[in-house]
Amino acid sequence: MPSACVPLVPQPPTITLQSPKDYIFDPREHIIIHCEAKGNPQPSFRWARNGTDFDVKSDSKIVMNPGSGTLDIDIIGGKAEAYEGTYQCTAENEHGKALTNKIVIRQSRSPLWPKERNEAMVRQKGAPLVLRCQPPAGLPPPVIFWMDNNFQRLQLDERVSQALNGDLYFSNVLPEDARDDYICYARFPHTQTIQQKQPISVVVLDMDTLNETLAALYNLTDFSGGEYNPQGERRPRILLPSEPTSTKMVLKGVLLQLECIAEGLPTPDVSWQKVGGELPNNRMALHNFGKILQISDVNESDAGDYRCTAKNKLGLVHHVIKVAVKAAPFWISAPKNLILAPNETGILTCRVNGSPKPKISWFVNGVPIENAAADRSRKVDEDTVIISNVQIGSSAVYQCNASNEFGYVMANAFVSVLAEPPKMLTPPNLVYQVITNSPAFLDCSSFGSPIPTISWFKDGRISIENGDQYVIHENGTLEIMVAQVLNTGKYTCVATNNLGMRENSVNLEVKEPTRILEQPKYKVVQRGMSARFDCKVKHDKSLIPIMTWLKDRGELPDDERFEVDSDSLTIKNVVEGDEGTYTCMMKTSLDQDSASAVLTVVGSTPTPGIFYGKPDPPTDLELTDQAERSVQLTWTPGDENNSPILSFVVQYEDSLHHKGLWVNLTEVDGSKTTTQLELSPYVYYSFRVLARNNVGYSEPSNPSSQYRTNPAAPDENPSNVQGVGTKPDNMVISWMPLTGYQANGPGLKYKVHWKRRDMDESWSSQNVVDKSQLVVDGTPTYVPYEIKVQALNDYGNGPDPEIAIGYSGEDVPLSAPEKVQVKVQDGTLAEVHWKPVNASSVRGQLQGYKVQNSMKPNLSYIRTEKVIVFSGDQSHGQIPDLQPFSIYRLSIKVLNNKGEGPSSSNQTFETPEGVPGPPSFLNVVSPGLDSLSLEWGPPVNNNGRLTGYTLRYQPVNHSAEQGFVHELNFFANETATTLDNLNTSMLYKFYLSAKTIKGSGPTITEEAFTNCFVVSLVCAAPTVGPAFGAVNASLAEEGVVISWEYFGHHKNVAVQYTLENSKEDWTKEWVNGTHSHMIKSLKPGMSYKVRVVATDEAERMHSSKEVPVTVPAVPNRQVDIATQGWFIGLMCAIALLILVLLIVCFIKRNKGGKYPVKEKEDAHQDPEIQPMKEDDGTFGEYSDMEDHKPLKGSRTPSNGTVRRDESDDSLVDYGEGGDGQFNEDGSFIGQYSGKKEKDTHEGNESSEAPSPVNAMNSFV
């Protein structure tokens, strides 16, 4: 009821507007604390701060708005913190006091970030990393985000994520994470300020290329351990929450956020489950790439354990968060204002809930009710206050406060004691106008204390009661559901209480509907001709109609060619732009009707075209030959639009039972325009007709006038009659009730009959109203009954009902099966037999037999129990899935719908031994150069007495070929062994199975490598240095020999070659685990490039440097000069001449003479260092004597290759010998590349470049 319409009566204060309980203000703006209230007389306002009254007028910065209690505090330029505190407003007048909530006023704060110096965060590639934000505490809390120096937000993904507290987590760092501008920003919403943390630098070390020297460069003392040195790929580990278990408390109705961040390599995926329940999909959302689970509008069902799972290919890890849901107090039903008359009784209820349970406190006019003045008429019972026998002057405002540790709610409710005679609020002599067959609502608003009762009269004498076509609502409004012309008249509303009576009259006029009788027709008009649309309308003569024409749902063009008459539209000299849809709309003050037609403009000599459309709806529906259960319907067909009408469909609406629902009643041939309709009693019929042609159905016609059939007795009885017991001594008879349409009249009820089928007794019966079941008590247990249900109403009984069979309630069976026997088939299957119980002892419908068997294995104390149900009347069954070598105890119970009967006597049986399960684990520990140690665990299921284990193993070469299988047997108490004399750097595969006397069980397998025999290298760490060292090529008679230094552990190694400057694919030849290979297929006279490659387990390829090789061309005819006679003679002459020269020199030396060689020896301190002559490029005088001798301190290998295990020295101490040998870049080495002796005085004088492997070893 609008307050403007309520008479001015005394009223206690009511709070209409107040500020929220928690008010955070911006120190740059005014503080506005709302307190608005209404009452009669107008309430006055006062304020309390921190529990003490204070005078707002004493502070010049505080202004209270006129006519309200709202405070406006000007804090600009002053000390804002001086106005922080808890405020409460009181609105009062002579009838009571109403209170606002306690409003906590706090100033927003955005403190600066404390000064700090951030050390560089150094991590090895792949290690986890956490960058702490730790923003200053603000009010309200700030919004956290990370950016760089360019104010670009950091990209977050599955690997890098921001926690709820603002910290930045890396599941594993990558080289691209290295940067010096990780900056955490905090934005404070109220003050719109942003604070930033000092930038954090992150250094990522890649141990593929770094060593201890680099670590020392960063002054890292724990570089080789801890989180700086992750061991490659690893299982996930939970970083947040950091505790092993965690708990979370959340309040009902708020947002629950659970967080789970994990590290690992590869980056783990995070998923969520609720233990023992389902996640609420309609309220659940995942954020931060699945690491944050959000559940909105939390309720009690969301409490429980939530498990987060982090998983990668190496394993998974779980973390369980226990969520407890609490609740601040919330209203179930707040107390409502009461207006009572003297001597009446009122009840105030304060229904709240919360967790923990809220404490309810009552106040009267702001004073605790226990401290208020005594009032014998007032009784407090926890959440209820009862005020009895109230009197004038006892008006007051009651406050209900419900609180727990999480908050409070408070509500005001006044009790106003008034003695007022009825007053009419609806203006007198109102005129209501409605259209026939539409509802009419006549208002009767009143006020009084006690509340007046409302009654209605028509034309001053006919009393109107609820029912049939009239409904009197609680607020006094009279509704006429289907207004007819005969309902026109004067209606009087009377309001009465014990202090008086008032009446008010209104008038109802029921008007005829507006209908278009002749609709405009579709037109095809030649350009330049005229088009005329007719629209004839019928309307109520007392209403003023307005005819409007529209073109394409808009106004007609402002053109004099368009002429509008009272019932037509004429368009002269039509043009193409006149084409469109024209609508005639007739509107009155109460209703309207419209119809449309299409205008098509064609050329002056148009080709005749035929338009095929749906038929227009029928018109002029008329009801004649009205009878009790039939009526004749006649109509006028609409335009068939060039497609003959095939049929008409007649539909009806029952506005009494299903208003607004149209149902097909019959279909009539298209050549007919009338039909006789068969009707049902007690239905308010309206009819409409649809026409159908080959194009489709027309729109429905306008409804006919309403036709009401008289009530009659029911024509049918309820269906689906059943009798089922819910207790051992009852039977519930139920049925499918009739619809209102099937009732045929008012006062529908059901007569229920029943009697026992197995006894000769008379029928019992009982009438049931507004229900679809009847409970018959005191019945014997599970006996059959004959049942029938008959419909009847105020006009008679329905037909004789059919008989249905039902049963009274069941009870648990009385007897247990007997003669239980068990036959064991094998270790996993047994067959059980029993004698079925007597049918009378079942006391219900037999559902089957329940077999319970519990197991106690012979060698353990674990007890398990399984249940098998054999449906129906069975006497035997099989028990599968038994555990071998176990003792079972078995019992049987009979089942019915009520439950299970007593248990049979226990039968004990044993299952024989079987083969054991697989060993629980097989691990390889402490791998050596030629040995491997293995450990294993016994099977989870022994299935008998364990007699031992069988271990088989075999080597697996680089091409996955398996070698000879070795077999070892162990006793049952042996769970470890060490295998010696294995091959170095070889993969072995192991097969382990357990045995009982029944044989061996399933096998588990494992694979492991033995260690490599390489100084300072580990097989499991191939990424310390390059896989290949020097690669050399040398010519041989059969081809080119390629030799290499190889430091890897990969199984698949091959030599590849291709033509120089060619785009053809590399040709590959696999090598058999050696360090040299001969290529025989190279073509003479061609240049090639050669490399050595190795493939690891992850299909990654490692390659050596490419070596150029040129194969010399073969001459057409080759002559061996050493076999020619002239050459042999020449050589002999030269030898003789040299001999003579030597003799002469010897003689001269003995005589003390000097010769050039001696002079050169005196001139050089080191005879080994002989400079080359500048004129001819040859060595000194000893060169002809030394050309084919090795340099001092060197030797040449016999086979041209170097084995890596021949010395403990570095690999660079070795060289390659032989004629025509090439180094890595293809240049000629000659025969001075032998291996140096390891003399101490020469060990540090080598001028050769160091090996890459030794270079890395210097860092380790």
From TrEMBL:
Q: Which PROSITE patterns match?
A: FN3, IG_LIKE
| A Pfam family per the record | I-set
| Annotated Basic and acidic residues bias | 1156-1176, 1234-1244
What keywords would UniProt list here?
Cell adhesion, Cell membrane, Cell projection, Disulfide bond, Glycoprotein, Immunoglobulin domain, Membrane, Repeat, Signal, Transmembrane, Transmembrane helix
Question: Where does the record place the region Disordered?
Answer: 698-724, 1155-1260
- Membrane-traversing stretches: 1126-1147
Alphabetical list of Gene3D superfamilies matching this protein: Immunoglobulins
Q: Name one GO cellular component term.
A: plasma membrane
Q: Where in the sequence does UniProt note compositional bias of the Polar residues kind?
A: 698-709, 1246-1260
Q: Which GO terms describe its biological process?
A: axon guidance; brain development
Domain named Fibronectin type-III is located at: 617-712, 717-811, 816-914, 918-1017, 1022-1114
Residue stretches in coiled coil: none
Q: Where in the cell?
A: Cell membrane; Cell projection, Growth cone
Its recorded name reads: Neural cell adhesion molecule L1
Species of the source? Oryzias sinensis (Chinese medaka)
